[in-house]
Design goal:
It is found in: Cell membrane. The protein is an alpha+beta fold and 805 residues long. The protein is 51% helix and 17% strand.
């Protein structure tokens, strides 16, 4: 019986070769997209899964009620108090980046990046494989350091590094351990780890200095929700009480409403890459993965729809076969199984082809996403095969039941071709396919419009020809280094101007604190800067004046603020210029606002412009120590030569042995668009795939349906109908379905694309043209595809279809 079924299946594949190819192609493309996105998702979900303590470690983040926002930093006293007062917490780990440094040994020097200053329990939380030395007593001394195997190899070669001394710009350290960075996915892959003892000592009583990333290790069986509640009462409320001691104006409840944080959120370490509300390693982007996965599933659904449509459209060709088989006693269930087998064979071939195509496309896919995914995860094969089975059932069961329900007496009498069986089913499924196609067209056009808007929007500053140079070498008084370099670098040929600004576009510096006025408090980003920085960046002054080096007060207690600051305070420009505020970093003193500048974007257009206070770096003592860069405007006429002169000067006279680390501000800021340009590219590719699958299915279906009407065409032509009337009669049904599909897709597309646009602080208004263009494009394509076959139908040989009438 099985042999007979297979013979019948392959005879029908050969007979309907175009439909077979279209089904194979559509399912192969759909399954390939599904597997690639699934691998991407699984790869993102696999971060930190290597950690044997993963079930006990949670990332700490906070909810701020005032701004309805989340933050991922914690202060040292809050972490320490949490450990002491909440029995469910076994330990905590604090993290701070050290950036990069030059390592000097007795034999050589080497520049290393990506180091971390940590609390003592680092290797308890992240038990990297220890290759030399021991973790047992590490960080008992401030001078202990652990090196990655790669850094140890670069510094010591084959020599045993344990017990060796290394000099860094921040001091001399003793190597106590060498570890292997895990090959598995991890967001934490430091080249070196040292104790942040000096930082912790300075911050031990500073409840408001949120300077650290934090992980908590809970005791086995502890409920994270219980820890979150206790942290609120034992730590957050305690901070509020301490903050209001001696103040009759503010209660602890008001303090929390003004400054926060209000709640602790604990996220399992394996979920922070995709599912955390906020992460010290960067905010997750689960939504885009979910969108891509949903779109890949839609493509598979489109392929299944093609299958259903083509199978039901071919029903008249198999009606007599079914009638004969039913007449000789074949059961309905046997026919259903036979048709499901035929569907499964197509799906299985598509699955095998998609495996090969996925392997072929994987290198390009990895390059696009910056990954190193390989097809060695059994879940990819398992879930994709489940998808094959699902497609087999979805796309096979409907035609199978439909065909098996044919009545033997009708099919053997030959009346089936003139019946209305299946018309509503085919039309309904084809309309669904066109709805999906319309959604993709509208979505692709809106994504393209948003990305184009972002690329062309006025950012409020001019970063062209401005070179951002990083200070790599530690110096005790960095502001004096900057002031000396400003004079010397200005003498280099091709250098037009030199300045410094903390609030620099996409520099990663986002230090902030509360700025208070009477009973109101807002969070203001710090913009310590040189006198000329805002003019240097091309920022426009809206009201008031710039900082003036001839006024002593401009290095003592004056602020410039941006428009966002004034708006957040609820002031007019005139009110702002007549007011004084208390910044959290210098709360005992009042600072006078002397100027308001136009907003300019620091962090990309998916973020709104935050309130920023600009002030001279000498106004606040601790800000002087945070000068870690300088910015140089160079001539456009001599750019390459000027860069070479700057690099040579830097590497020989400023920081010998350190790399010249620099970038142009406009190019660095352009990186904020890369993610959205990739989304645009993906939508374009998916659009092409969807339209290709849909149009091929439409062509095959229209071919079969028009073939069933050839006798009607011959009769009407004999009665004098023109070719244009015949073509219109054959195509109008498909055009009506296209119109209905687009009208249905418009509210669906509007809702989902509006949800996508909500992620952008600066976004387009929902455009009208994508919806109209979707209708025009689909109607044009539908008419083009169907009219090709309709035109051929008008050229039928009348004798062949009327000779028996």
């Amino acid at each position: 019986m099985l042999n007979n079924w297979l013979k019948i299946a392959f005879i029908n594949y050969k007979k309907n070769w175009l439909s077979t190819i279209i089904n194979l192609f559509g399912l192969t493309v759909g399954l390939t997209g599904f597997m690639l996105i699934l691998m991407h998702w699984n790869d993102e979900e696999s971060f930190e899964s290597w950690n044997p303590k993963k079930n006990e470690i949670y990332s700490a983040s906070f909810f701020y009620k005032k701004n309805k926002d989340y933050g991922s930093n914690i202060s040292y006293p809050m972490a320490e108090t949490g450990l002491k007062k909440i029995p469910e917490i076994q330990d905590y780990l604090l993290l701070a980046g050290t950036g990069s440094d030059k390592f000097v040994t007795s034999q050589k020097s080497f520049y290393a990046e990506n180091g971390f200053a940590v609390s003592k329990s680092f290797f308890k939380f992240f038990p990297f494989k220890c290759l030399a030395g021991s973790y047992q007593n590490i960080f008992e001394s401030k001078t202990d350091i652990a090196l990655s195997s790669e850094l140890a190899q670069n510094l010591f070669g084959t020599q045993n590094p344990i017990g060796q001394k290394v000099k860094m710009s921040i001091g001399e350290f003793l190597v106590k351990a060498v570890y292997e960075i895990p090959k598995e996915n991890s967001q934490l892959k430091p080249n070196y780890v040292l104790l942040g003892a000096d930082r912790f000592d300075a911050d031990k009583d500073q409840w408001g200095n949120f300077n650290y990333g934090c992980f908590f290790m809970l005791k086995k069986g502890a409920d994270p929700a219980v820890v979150e509640r206790k942290f609120k009462t034992e730590v957050i409320d305690l901070r509020a009480k301490l903050g209001t001691e001696g103040s009759a104006k503010t209660s602890p409840e008001e303090y929390l409403d003004l400054y926060g944080p209000n709640e602790l959120l604990l996220t399992p370490i394996t979920e922070i890459k995709l599912h955390a509300k906020s992460s010290w390693f960067g905010n997750p982007d689960f939504k885009i993965i979910l969108i891509l996965f949903s779109l890949s599933v839609l493509i598979v659904v489109l392929s299944a729809i093609n299958f259903i449509n083509l199978k039901t459209a071919q029903s008249s060709q198999r009606a007599k076969e079914i009638g004969v088989r039913k007449a000789i006693g074949v059961s309905k269930s046997s026919l259903v199984l036979q048709f499901l087998l035929e569907t499964f064979i197509i799906c299985l071939f598509s699955y095998l082809l998609s495996l090969a195509l996925t392997e072929l496309l994987l290198p390009s896919f990895n390059e696009f996403f910056g990954k190193e995914i390989v097809m060695n995860d059994w879940r990819i094969y398992f879930y994709s095969f489940l998808m094959v089975l699902a497609v087999t059932l979805i796309s096979g069961i409907i035609p199978a039941i439909y065909l098996s329900n044919f009545k033997a007496i009708e099919t053997l009498k030959g009346n089936f071709a003139r019946s209305k069986h299946g018309i509503w089913l085919r039309n309904g499924i084809l309309t669904l396919q066109l709805i999906i196609s319309s959604f993709f067209i509208i979505g692709g056009l809106i994504v393209n419009s948003q990305v184009k808007y972002m690329m062309n929007k006025d950012l409020g500053f001019n970063g062209k020809q401005i070179l951002f140079i990083v200070f790599n070498e530690y110096t005790p008084k960095p502001w004096l280094k900057y002031e000396k370099l400003k004079t010397e670098v200005s003498k280099i040929k091709g250098v037009e101007e030199v300045s410094f600004g903390e609030a620099s576009p996409n520099s990663g510096s986002n230090s902030s604190s509360n700025i208070d006025f009477q009973n109101k408090s807002i969070d203001g980003q710090h913009g310590a800067m040189d006198y000329n920085y805002l003019q240097f960046m091309g920022v426009k002054l809206k009201k008031g004046r710039w900082l003036n080096p001839n006024l002593a007060s401009d290095t003592i207690n004056t602020f410039l603020v941006n428009e966002a600051f004034v708006k957040e305070m609820g002031w007019t420009d005139e009110q702002a210029l007549n007011n004084q505020v208390n910044p959290g970093f210098d709360y005992q003193n009042k600072y006078k606002i002397v100027g308001i500048v136009k907003d300019f974007n620091l962090n990309g257009l998916n973020h709104k412009v935050n309130p920023v206070v600009f002030f001279h770096y000498r106004e606040t003592e601790w800000k002087r120590f945070n000068i870690q860069n300088m910015q140089v405007k160079i001539s456009a006429n001599d750019q390459e030569e000027t860069l070479n002169r700057l690099k040579q000067y830097w590497e020989t006279k400023v920081e010998p042995g350190y790399p010249f680390t620099s970038y142009f501000l406009d190019q660095r800021f352009a990186r904020t668009f890369v993610k959205y340009q990739k989304q645009k590219t993906l939508f374009t590719i998916l659009n092409a795939m969807v339209l290709m699958v849909a149009l091929l299915g439409l062509f095959a279906l229209s071919s079969l349906m028009i073939e069933q009407k050839l006798k009607e065409v011959a009769i009407r032509k004999t009665l004098g109908a023109s070719d244009s009337n015949l073509m219109l009669g054959l195509t109008k049904q498909f055009l009506w379905m296209t119109l209905i599909a687009v009208l249905i897709s418009i509210p669906i597309s509007y809702y989902f694309m509006n949800e996508w646009l909500k992620d952008f602080a600066y976004r387009i208004e929902m455009p009208f043209f994508p919806f109209v263009l979707s209708l025009v494009v689909l109607l044009t394509l539908t008419f083009t595809v169907v009219s090709v076959k309709a035109y051929k139908a008008t050229k039928v040989n009348l004798v062949n279809y009327l000779k028996y009438e």
